[in-house]
Amino acid sequence: MATLEEGKYLNAADGRHYCFAGFPGPKIYEFPEGNKWVEHLLFGDYIEIRELEIISNRVKVNARGSEGWINITDINTERVLEVNFVDIGQGDGCHIVTPDDQQIILDAGEFDQMNRYLWWRFYLYNRTEPLPFRFKVIISHSDQDHYKGFGPVFDNDKIRISHIYHNGIVERPGESSPFGTVKKGYIYSLVKDTAQMKEIITDPGKRDGNYSTYPLTLFQALKYNPDVSFSMISAEDRYLEGFDPSNRIYGKKFIIEILGPLVSRKDGVPALKTMNDAGKDKNGHSVLMKIIYGNARILLGGDINEEFGELINTHYRPVGNGQHPLQADVAKACHHGSNHFHTGFIQSVNALATVISSGDEENFSHPRPDALGAFGKWGYGDKPMIFSTEIARSNKEFTHQRMEEIFRLRDNVKAAEHELLLITDRSNPSVARKVSRLEKKIADGNKLINSNLTKYGMINLRTNGELMIIAQKLEVPSSKSKWDIQKMKYDDHSGRFERMEE
């Protein structure tokens, strides 16, 4: 009897065997032989190996909730970088999983979509304890469609946060300006560390009235994370803590560069330039970061606008004949594809793929036609790609009939939750069985709701530093696939990721 060799799988602490899906996205088949598949995976998906015995060059596995057989040539033991652009409607929300399994949330939209995504992704429905790891949070800037969605995340007793990074600009009431001291064209009252942040957010006066929403949301983080740390990050730091050039994963560099905001030294203290417009200042000083894994470069910015885009583009210049510091293989479009962009900034980024996070119910008409044109014109290669969470979401899941089904599910869940609250004595075996049935009904209902409302609009990026995919779920699965997968590979000659044609 042939069995899978040890180098093809890993061993978990509980004795289970596991591996990861190979490039670009293998199938799980119903039987050891034949082409009937039951699940279509993405590069890097976690796979539990159920049996080590090899039959017809396949082993029995479970992944994405489906059991079946996978070709042994379609698995490997190296985890990839995941950058999941979550569909949170109008706003930004990004979930990053590093190849060594660190979890980062960059922005969370305005409502509860990020929280629902986390319930779905980590199957929190039947958990009684928090997840065994802690998330790092990065808030690009203090616009509600980037940070307010952290409220439900912070209020989730299954989630724990170790660190919250931000751009230093903290709106709060009761001072000379929403940002504190502003003089001589610069914002001086930057919130740099945990002590300064807690002084603001634990003050009840800063959590009430105009400009109080941001400190109120951050205060919610203390509910389950009293020891959470707060740090301002800027280009002065150069790298996110723990992700400097010495960091290696699978022998490859894994770096998170911080390229913005740009800090000036005024009167011996750090300060940020102001355009005398609170909205422009918040957007323009968004955290701008670049993830580098092997040869892959992913640029993530918040709402950087025309004025600050020009300042940033002027600040960074190529060294000799080298790459521009802003250049990236994949870039998240700043400000949801707004028309407030600097052409030179987009030219310098020169991305092969641009991802736009935007929503339907907004009056900005994001993404704007000129932004789409600029992403295409100044993108890399003959066929630069543009992805959109809003477009990816346009599918049969959101017909009136389907939404009515989701609302009915939610009503059933609420009724079960109410019935469960009325049960005070659970010592009787028949009552205990009823409680178990109600808990299962709540968990199953929430799973369906969160799955329907999160998975279709998401843009999935996976890379091992040499190979990369960007995938979105098909509106209607075909006989060959349930994903639209764009494949890319690093080319030594061009020094860039290039599209792999079919």
Describe this structure in words.
The protein is α+β, with helices and mostly antiparallel strands. It contains twelve helices and 29 strands. The two termini are 37 Å apart. 24% of the residues lie in helices and 28% in strands. The chain folds into three domains: 6-76, SH3 type barrels (Roll); 81-392, Metallo-beta-lactamase, Chain A (4-Layer Sandwich); 397-454. The longest helix has 26 residues, at 429-454. The protein is globular.
Keywords:
12 helices; seven-stranded mixed sheet; 3 domains; SH3 type barrels; alpha+beta; 28% strand; 502 residues; globular; single chain; ten-stranded mixed sheet; Metallo-beta-lactamase, Chain A
Distance from N terminus to C terminus (CA atoms, Å) equals: 37 Å
Share in helix: 10-25%
Low-confidence stretches: 394-398
Q: Calculate Rg over CA atoms.
A: 24 Å
**What CATH first level of the largest domain would be assigned?**
Alpha Beta
The biggest beta sheet reads: 10 strands, mixed
For the largest sheet, list the strands in their spatial order.
16-13-12-11-10-9-26-27-28-29
Number of strands: 29
Overall pLDDT confidence = 90
Number of domains: 3
